[in-house]
Amino acid sequence: MTERGVVRVPGDKSISHRALILASLATGESRLAGILDSADVRSTAGILRNLGVDIPELSADFRLTGVGLRGLKPSSSILDAGNSGTTVRLMAGVTAACEFSSRFEGDASLSKRPMKRVSEPLQAMGARFEFANGDGLPMIVNGGVLKGITWNTRAASGQTKSAILLAGLVAGVRVSVIESRKSRDHTERMLKSLGVAVTTGDLTAAILPAVSLSPLDLTVPGDPSSAAYMVAIGILAHEGEVRIPDVCMNATRIGFIETVASMGAHVAVTSRRAIAGDDAATLIVRPSVLRNAKVGGDIIPAMIDELPLLACVAAAYGISLEVSDASELRVKESDRIATVVQNLRAIGVDAEERPDGFIIRPGHGKLRGVVKTEGDHRIAMSFGILASLAGNSIEIDDPDCVSVSYPRFWQDLERIRSDTA
Ligand code: S3P
Questions:
Q1: Distance of CA 115 from the midpoint of ligand 1 (Å)
Q2: Strand 242-248's sheet: what is its strand order?
Q3: CA 42, 44, 45, 47 torsion-angle sign
Q4: Is 305 a catalytic residue?
Q5: Does 153 sit in the ligand 1 pocket, CB within 6 Å?
Q6: Model pLDDT, residue 1
Q7: Distance 421 CA to ligand 1 centre (A)
Q8: What does 209-238 look like in DSSP terms, one character per residue?
Q9: Domains, in order of start, for the chain
Q10: Which atom of ligand 1 is nearest to the CA of 159?
Q11: Could you count the other beta carbons within 10 Å of the beta carbon of residue 129?
Q12: What angle do CA 191, 193, 194 make, to 5 degrees?
């Protein structure tokens, strides 16, 4: 029996992908506890299996023996990344340093997403890329002997930075990445915790050649992006308290919690502890009244995946919200500026698109209508929060798409809603 109001969110998706990749490249046996078992992470596991790593079925506590930094083998079949941008971009970095060709494919949504942000730096290092449609999937990576590089990324992208760092790791060359705004830094932290020489500054990350990679012994903390939905239920509730244990509190991931707190949300952070070079904590959330907000600038990358949720939270309170500097939302699993605004309008909210964000205007009244997710899990979950509120009547067209990041979402939502009703 789970305690009333307590919800343990699944393992962090970004860390889970990286844990599988690094454990596969390590020499020896890694132990991974609490890894996220979702469609996206299964895509990474599937591709690593195709490249010759013996990965057992994902489970809460499993072991995996790595093949070493240069031990991956060419795949006889295509590498299917499904819906997962992190899978294809990080594995493009890894395979760019392997002296064989790999063909990556993905679903309709992933096939539309830009790959130039990884192909450009990896080509500059010496790999060769082939595309049939612009810079979208299918993509063939012809790996080779790479040289070191210093690369300025244009967008703040944890995936791009990680692709370059992983290529440097596997190739055994020095790489350095400079960003305009700091993106999530799990790859750097995890590599450092495994003894790789990584140096980081405010906007830089560099890695020196490593001879081999030590195995991991890692407990994956809860995903702050998944926790954000449960935080939203807790602040929107009329009574009770929601407790979310062991949430990853990496500073590059907690922009949503910081933002709603600055808007008036009661979110207490307790029981802090260190996990794998990162911080984790328990969140205690109480019913709150939120104020209008404007969000932009350096905090955006730290809450990029939570902006659709923030929009829905603003709509739930009937407050105004202005989001800027978030044009990256246009190239996520859907064009999230368009999907957020169109769906808010479809249920009766006054919302407007901006090239780099959106504006939501105050309004009161019940929300009703059908939400078209475009198969985007974060759209389904964000509007799912609005759908769960008393008085609203909202249908989500594709609730099952949550399986890519939070398969238990609807069950957790229902239970925590009834615990706080
Ligand atoms: C991720 C980085 C972010 C994020 C995505 C996961 C990662 O994407 O939106 O959900 O694990 O590195 P970008 O690298 O495109 O910013």
A1: 13
A2: 242-248, 278-286, 266-275
A3: positive
A4: yes
A5: no
A6: 54
A7: 34
A8: --S--PPPEEEPPBPHHHHHHHHHHHHH-S
A9: 13-219 (3.65.10.10), 224-419 (3.65.10.10)
A10: 14
A11: 18
A12: 65
CA torsion 331-320-225-412 (nearest 10°) is -120
Span from the CA of 170 to the centroid of ligand 1 (angstroms)? 21
Determine the Cα–Cα distance for residues 245 and 375; give it in Å rounded to an integer: 29
**What pLDDT score was predicted for residue 275?**
78
pLDDT of the residue at 278? 84
Is the CB of 86 inside a 6 Å radius of any atom of ligand 1? yes
**Atom 2 in ligand 1: residue holding the nearest Cα:** 158
Residue type for position 8:
R
Asked if residue 304 has its Cβ within 6 Å of ligand 1, the reply is: yes
Q: Name the catalytic one among 12, 40, 223, 305.
A: 305
> Mean pLDDT in each 10-residue stretch from start to end of the chain (421 residues)?
89 98 98 97 98 97 97 98 98 98 98 98 98 96 98 95 98 98 97 96 97 96 98 97 97 98 98 86 98 98 98 98 98 98 98 98 95 98 98 98 98 95 78
CB-ligand 1 contact for 187 (6 Å cutoff) = no
Give the position, in ligand 1's atom list, of the atom nearest the Cα of 155. Answer: 16
Pick the atom of ligand 1 nearest to 156's CA: 16
DSSP letter string over 49-93? HHTT---PPP-SEEEEEEE-TT-----SS-EE-TT-HHHHHHHHH
Location of structure tokens 């195709």: 50
Q: Could you tell me if the CB of 280 is within 6 A of ligand 1? A: no
- Please report which residue ranges of 207-364 form alpha helices under DSSP H: 224-236, 255-262, 307-317, 336-346
What pTM, to 2 d.p., does this model score?
Answer: 0.98
Residue 250 Cβ < 6 Å to ligand 1? no
Taking the C-alpha atoms of residue 204 and residue 152, their distance in angstroms, rounded to an integer, is 9
Q: Alpha helix locations (H) across 97-185?
A: 108-111, 116-125, 158-171
